[in-house]
Design brief:
three-stranded antiparallel beta sheet; Receptor-associated Protein; single chain; mainly alpha; 3 domains
């Protein structure tokens, strides 16, 4: 959040500037550290329009890799943060790192300093650092988080890459159909009106639709743009995304794979926190945001069961938060006292299963989609030329 400030510096000069801070209290704390006396301080929200999502965020994987490299090189934590702040080129990110460095100089822990910037450091990252500070294993925690994020990004990229070609194919097919219906069909309609021959019922319907699109072309274009904009905006709304997820969960075969995907995310996150030294109940609570809304009640029951002394594997299994393979692996991990590592292995197994399913589904969807688009375009072309074929047959 940005604030417009007017203050007096130690040299008794009036300073006017824009300050980036979490809230007003954080802004005043920053000004106090710089020995500035505040004259006025007002938020810029409502004064300046900003495109959603333009706020710069520190890339956590890159930040963690650089911090890990500096710590391995022998630098202290404060020196490493200081070096990262000096090398940062983006002003907002540099200010964030400078404020973290200031908190470290004040004697605060790194987790406490990071928690003041939730826009750049999510609660999961802060919890990972806090657990590592208790055990004194900062390097191991950073390495685990880097591996965790890279695995999560790899699964996300697999799903995105698998959907790109079908979406492009569908978009091109729709554009071709719109071109035929909005441009080619109306021209054929004019030709057939001049000829005056009787047309088959299906061809008449097609030509009437083409004429309708041609006569209201601007309205159709505006409607399509509005529909695309409304769809893009709607997909950014959490409530709509949850509803779409519920619809997909009811599709046979897809619901089971969505369950496996959620289990992979849940187990990977919980396993990383357990390996970092966090107790089971706080680790589960920290991972609750990864569970779908329809399973939140079951997840809360599992957490309560663990809190009452039930084993973690049994609590998850009884509340439907496992698969048959995952349940067996969790029991083995519990008996061996290595639950964190076993949960990460379950997540890796689920990722492999999802990757195989996505590959098979992609091989099936692409030819089916091409066949469907080809059939629709073929029907349009045949209905356009059918009167010509009929006329040629009558002449013969």
């Amino acid at each position: 959040m940005e604030f417009r400030l007017k203050a007096v510096d130690p040299a008794r000069t009036v300073v006017t500037a824009v300050l980036d801070a979490v809230d007003e209290a954080d802004a005043r704390r920053q000004l106090a550290l710089e020995e500035l006396r505040v004259i006025s301080l007002e938020p810029l929200a409502g004064l300046r329009w900003r495109w959603p999502g333009r706020r710069h965020r520190i890339p956590l994987v890159v930040f963690s890799l650089q911090l890990l490299s500096l710590l391995d090189a022998g630098l202290s934590l404060v020196e490493a943060i200081d070096a990262l702040a000096e090398r940062e080129s983006h002003p907002a990110a540099r200010r964030t790192l400078e404020r973290i460095r200031a908190r470290l100089y004040e004697g605060q822990t790194l987790a406490a300093a990071l928690s003041e910037h939730p826009g750049s450091f999510p609660p999961l990252y802060v919890a990972t650092v806090r657990a590592s500070e208790r055990t004194g294993a900062m390097r191991e925690a950073l390495s685990r988080y880097i591996a965790y994020q890279q695995q999560a990004d790899a699964l996300r990229k697999t799903l995105v890459n698998a959907s790109i070609y079908p979406l492009v194919l569908l978009g091109v097919g729709l554009l071709v159909m719109l071109f035929l219906m909005g441009y080619v069909v109306p021209r054929f309609s004019a030709i057939y009106e001049d000829v005056g021959s009787d047309l088959p019922a299906a061809s008449r319907v097609l030509l009437e639709w083409g004429k309708l699109l041609d006569e209201h072309a601007p309205a159709v274009v505006v409607a399509l743009i509005a529909l695309a904009g409304a769809t893009a905006y709607g997909l950014t709304r959490p409530a709509l995304r949850r509803q779409v997820a519920r619809w997909f969960a009811r599709v046979p075969g897809v619901g089971e794979r969505l369950h496996v995907y959620q289990i992979a995310r849940l187990y990977r996150t919980t396993g990383m926190l357990l390996r970092g030294g966090m107790p089971a109940v706080p680790a589960l609570q920290m991972s609750s945001g990864l569970v779908h809304a329809s399973r939140q009640a079951a997840f809360a029951a599992a957490i309560q069961a663990v809190r009452e002394g039930q084993s973690l594997a049994e609590a998850l299994d009884r509340n439907g938060l496992t698969t048959p393979v995952a349940a067996r692996m969790l029991r083995v991990g519990e008996r061996s006292g290595n639950m964190g590592e076993m949960m990460e292995r379950v997540a890796a197994f689920c990722d492999e299963e999802l990757a195989r399913w996505v590959a098979i589904l992609t091989r099936l969807i692409e030819p089916a989609l091409m066949t469907l688009i080809g059939l629709v375009i073929g029907v349009i072309v045949v209905l356009m030329y059918f009167p010509i074929f009929q006329l040629a047959g009558s002449i013969q």
